[in-house]
Design goal:
single chain, seven-stranded mixed beta sheet, two-stranded antiparallel sheet, 10 helices, globular, disordered N terminus
Length: 333
């Protein structure tokens, strides 16, 4: 990926300049499942309290909208919440500025090879960016699940403004309790890593698929060698992850499921990271600020940033893969 050229936004373009220097690259942006699942007052490893988590999702969602305003001049300029990857030079103009994160949406849609007018479930939809993009390019009807009332309001407002309220629907709902479907596709972009039990989550999502329907996954998957690594432990601590599914664990689940893998891409080389010295400098700065900042919401953002720095270090050391997988549910005899 280091050779495919420059695209999209720099860290400061992604989440704004923080404490006088651009923030880390790999934080993505905030959605339920992108940062912590617990209140910041709790020690790392404390049990998840779903009642507390919603307020923090809302706070971070508002922060994302503020960064949109500062960076692009419009609160809803960027409705995607995942990474902006490196893009091949010839595609750069198509994914400039706020369009940078759409590259992975388009890559996933092309890989999925969906039927005409597909029925799609987005598990962890955020503000609806993937749904709106796929609807524009493939038609169909879409249901999006989010745990954040703020995201729900923004997504519904954006759908109404586009005249898509009837075909892009949003629910305040956990992806562990999905609608019954049936769907032609379920998409999950950078959400599975935050599941307390990813096998249970995937089993539930697969159950909503029509026979022949497809599961599209994109996420950060630690390699086996990352087990017990201090950076993986830091990532889990700062993002309050139960146990990020590893490469091997995901592959084992796929092998035992009723799905057949039909497409896979390793996009690890497209993930942008910062130089090691800069990551070290930012970690010192964020850690010091976290100790001094009295606001819970601000500390939560700093924890998210620290987790992002740990993820970047894992990528730099070759201990995480960024994978796109498409698996089809086998038709019943």
């Amino acid at each position: 990926m280091r050779s495919v050229g420059r695209e999209g936004r720099l860290p400061g373009e992604r989440i704004g300049t923080f404490l006088g220097e651009p923030c880390c690259e790999s934080i993505g942006i905030v959605e339920p499942g992108i940062v912590a699942k617990r209140a910041m007052e709790e020690p790392a490893g404390a049990p998840l309290d779903p009642g507390q988590s919603t307020g923090f999702y809302n706070w971070l969602s508002r922060f994302n909208l503020l960064m949109n305003l500062l960076r692009f001049g419009r609160v809803e300029a960027d409705l995607t919440l995942h990474k902006a990857l490196r893009v091949p030079p010839e595609l750069g103009p198509a994914y400039a500025g706020a369009a940078a994160p759409l590259f992975i949406n388009d890559r996933a849609l092309a890989a999925a090879e969906l039927p005409a007018e597909p029925r799609v479930l987005d598990a962890g939809c955020g503000f609806g960016g993937t749904m709106f993009r796929w609807r524009e390019r493939a038609g169909g009807t879409y249901d999006g699940l989010t745990s954040s009332p703020v995201q729900l309001r923004v997504a519904r407002r954006a759908a109404a403004r586009r005249g898509l309220s009837a075909c892009c629907r949003f629910q305040l709902r956990s992806y562990d309790q999905p609608p019954t479907g049936p769907y032609d596709a379920v998409v999950s972009i950078e959400s599975l890593i935050y599941s307390p039990r990813f096998e249970r989550t995937l089993d539930g999502l697969v159950a909503t698929l029509e026979p022949g329907g497809k599961l599209i996954l994109i996420d950060d998957f630690p390699r086996a060698a990352a087990a017990g690594d201090r950076d993986l432990e830091a990532l889990a601590k700062h993002w309050r992850l139960a146990a990020p599914p590893s490469d091997g664990a995901l592959d084992a689940w796929l092998a035992g499921s009723e799905l057949r893998l039909v497409h896979e891409e390793d996009l690890t080389d497209n993930v942008r990271t910062s130089p090691a010295a800069r990551l070290q400098r930012l970690e010192r700065r964020y850690t010091a600020a976290h100790a001094l900042l009295p606001l819970v919401g601000g500390r939560f953002v700093l924890e998210a940033l620290l987790g992002g720095l740990a993820l970047e270090r894992l990528y730099r050391r070759g201990l995480v893969r960024y994978r796109l997988l498409v698996a089809r549910r086998e038709k019943r005899a």
